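Researcher: I'm preparing a figure for a lab meeting and need a structural model of a single chain. I don't have an experimental structure, so a prediction will have to do for now. The sequence is pasted below. Please return the structure as tokens so I can convert it later.
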Amino acid sequence: MVDTPTADTPREPDISHVNPAAEATWFGHPRQLARLFSTEMWERFGYYGMRALLTLYLTQHFLFGDREATGLYGGYTALVYLTPLIGGYLADQYLGSKRAVKFGAIIMALGYFTLCFGGQTAKPFAIVDGQRYEVQIEGSDNAQTRYVLDGGQRLKIKGNDDKSIDLMAADGSVKRHIAPGAFKSDAERSQLHVMILLIALCMVSVGNGFFKPNISTMVGELYAQGDRRRDSGFTIFYMGINLGSFFSQLLCPWLAVAVGWWAGFGLAAIGMLFSWFLIQFNGGKLDGYGEPPRRDGPDRALVIYGCALLAVPVFYFLYTNLMSSAAAEPGEGIVGYILSLPLMGKLLFGTFLLAVPGILIWSYAAGDRREFQMMVAAMVLIVFNVVFWTLFEQAGSSLTLYADRNTDLSVFGLFSITAGQTQFFNAAFIVMLAPVMSILWNALAKRGLEPTVPVKFGIALIGVGLGFLFLVWGARFAGPDFKVAIWWLAGLYLIHSVAELCISPVGLSMITKLSIARIVGLMMGVWFLSISVAQYVAGVVAQVASVETVGGQVTNLKVSLDTYNGVFWTIGLVAAAIGVFLLLISPLIRKWMHGVQ
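Model: Understood. Here is the structure written out token by token.
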């Protein structure tokens, strides 16, 4: 018999569940968020530390030309953003998020450590009229001089404003004048160490595919459906990205200059090991989160890990194909350009160009009018997203080379930073401006004035264009050494950071809301594919800004500055014009969104 309490009988306390007020929290969020925040922070420390060095490493250590270096960088970042599609699927179906994150972390750490083994700096040489000449480098990093060894003579290499080359004798006389395009620079590289470099990039690409999507999935599992803390929890979590990138983009380039490339990459690897340690030895704090799905049959984890490692030689082939591809000949048109693309470019463009119209055709046939219009709106935003990230991601390639060659890196005359360290501006501005932008949007929303998503996308595109135009304007004040004050570059990153905050927080969320429920996973895949395509195209744009170098150094800083100004002016105007166009059609896109905010 169960006693039934009466009005005079004291009621026993309910101990059937834990009192939420007694649950330990971290800034009002589940305690596990702190560990996942730290895990993501250290992973981003490794990734952005390595990214800050990569283009400079390719041009200054391996002495690749700008076209090869920026192309390889674009291909690498494209794969980094493409592999999470597969890693997320495998975690959902077989591994569980936690095991996927652990595996990804250890593979990336091994990749960063592998980058430490770069061997000796490549030896430059030049080819003039089919004849090969040794190139000798003298001087410190900031004041190096290149000489061609012609028999018993050392001839100084002097680049002219018309892109021709003069070979100068010790008395200053011109011993030989070489017409534009007739002087070809290259370097002897250890094929073993180039192979090690590419294997390292392959490992990072594979590891990132397992880590990147699944750490976010685990954060989502901390909150019950409808928990209003979810959005703010992700905001805190993503702050870890910027904290990690902020410190690594200061420390890794500094170590690379002060100690050696291996030290910069080694610090990135140590950061990645911290990330793995936090998730591997969590003391049971993450039990029940990111667990594998219940499935009948044997565990397939080892098979998946093995297949993931087999992807390394596949990616290696894609990288070598990318590096060996020749540019299209002038006058061949768009068809010739497409045919000249490396295999990676053909696969990315082909998949994207088939996926967008293919999904829209399916939506028209399978959905109603409202669903089709929402899908059209989603695809329009995806296409404009490609444009934004193509230009924004010049940070790791052409803008880093611009910082190295045509920027005065002195800070108030007190000290100087390195070219790689200039990438920290973006992370610093995001940390400072994110709360301000959040307050601004909330204040505008209360007054019914918050811009719609298409308008935010348009503002972001105009902003990324204005950033480049601002830097071109600053180049008018370059000194006689053809170098621009660092504050102009910082101004570009400030404008780009504001633009990023207009587009980045809302993009993926909007795609999931606009998609037909039956294919929301596929649409998320197309979104990540669009970013991957943007990364690849960013490398192509950086190739357009390529400057002739000898032994990793430009032969004429005026030509270098003019080249960058020309490219930045063009993409700045194009981006701003596309942004204005998007603003003009935003009422139509908003109508197609049918009230989705």
